[in-house]
Amino acid sequence: MKQFYCLLLILFPLCVFSQQDSVRTTGTKQKTEQKPHHSLGLGIKAGLNFTNITSASSISNSSETGYQVGLFLDPSSNSILGSRTELLYSHQAYNYATGTTTGKNYLDYIMLAQLMAINITHFVQIQIGTQIGYLLSAKSDSNKVSTGYAQADAALDYYNRIDFGFSGGLEVRPFMGIIVGARYNFSITNLYKLPDTNGSQTPPSFIPSTSDLNFKNNLVQVYVGYRF
Predict the structure, then answer these.
(1) Which candidate, 141, 177, 143, 218, places its Cα nearest to that of 39?
(2) Which residue of 10, 181, 200, 210 lies most exposed, with the fewest beta carbons within 10 A?
(3) What's the angle, vertex CA 219, arms to CA 172 and CA 170, rounded to 5?
(4) 187 close to 157: Cβ distance less than 8 angstroms
(5) What is the pTM of this model?
(6) Helix (H) or strand (E) holding 224
């Protein structure tokens, strides 16, 4: 009988410890199985564009208002650094005036942005990266929207279809997946194609009357959105 009591005294602590380990393991599994909110990071956004062109001191350039709408992918991350990918439709415009020419131009782009995200707590994110756009259509003053497939589409023929640049901005996430942000984008590619060096091609009226066409898109975006 004494041997039986001794065996119970030995087994009792082992049973208690094993139950505690089981509870801890179960709790850890429950915590692990709980998926973090917004783990995918897929979202939608829309906002306003304020655009003009840089390197245009000779043509009295002024800004115009457009709009943007699109999707983004911003996976959740527990680290300071993350990534942000966006696909946007961007309607941009600018006007100009020289001694002989005035006009207003409208440009429609599909834009792909790839950004590095710096997370300052869960509520603030700094975004820095690159952006590339493909020009879908161009409209100048009262000209019809260009398609790029007909000889009459003179406006689109004078623009570079690819626009590449850098982006930087700040995004705030106040509550429940809502996002509010602002971003500055500046291009490093020329807006217009270089003129014919032989002088055989006369620029149309919607091209600023100047020998220097080294103009670049300059874009400020403000937006709101929702992150699922």
Answers:
(1) 177
(2) 200
(3) 15
(4) no
(5) 0.72
(6) strand 216-227
Rounded Cα–Cα distance for residues 136 and 138 (Å): 7
Structure tokens at 148: 């790029």
Classify residue 206 as left (phi > 0), alpha (psi -120 to 50) or beta: alpha
With CA atoms as reference, report the closest residue to 83 among 128, 140, 46. 128
Q: How far apart are the C-alpha atoms of 72 and 74, rounded to whole Å?
A: 6
Q: Whose structure tokens read 């415009």?
A: 93
Nearest-angstrom CA–CA distance, 155 and 212: 18
User: Which are the contacts of 211, defined by CB distance < 8 A and separation ≥ 6?
Assistant: 195
Containing 22, the helix (H) or strand (E) segment is: helix 2-33
List the pLDDT tens digit at each of the 228 positions of the chain. Answer: 544 444 444 444 444 344 444 444 444 444 444 444 445 789 999 999 998 887 665 555 667 899 999 999 998 878 899 999 999 999 998 877 766 667 778 899 999 999 999 999 889 999 999 999 999 998 876 445 554 444 435 678 788 999 999 999 999 999 888 999 999 999 999 888 765 544 545 556 566 655 566 788 889 999 999 998
How many other C-beta atoms lie within 10 A of the C-beta of residue 81? 9
Opening angle at CA 60, ends 153 and 133, nearest 5: 45
Of residues 147, 122, 150, the one with CA closest to residue 137: 147
Chain length of the chain: 228
With contact defined as beta carbons under 8 Å apart, do 184 and 167 qualify? yes
